[in-house]
Specification:
Helix content is 68%, strand content 0%. By secondary structure, the chain is mainly α. It has one domain. The two termini are 24 Å apart.
């Protein structure tokens, strides 16, 4: 999942805690910020954390067919 990476985490653990309602307030604010992004801002943030953009993934998958 890329939401936790855009929020600044290298592992999904804090996101999973937040989903269960057991996260800390700082993590909750980070995830709220990410979830309130526009799709364009989220895709731009994905590139900033080194994740492939959805279009890049689709292109790679089509090349595998």
């Amino acid at each position: 999942m890329d939401i936790w990476a855009v929020a600044g985490y290298t592992e999904a653990t804090e996101f999973e805690r937040w989903q269960r309602g057991a996260g800390n307030p700082i993590a909750a604010e980070k995830f709220r910020r990410v979830l309130s992004m526009t799709p364009g801002d989220f895709i731009q943030a994905l590139g900033a954390v080194g994740r492939p953009k959805p279009v890049d993934l689709a292109t790679r998958l089509v090349g595998c067919l």
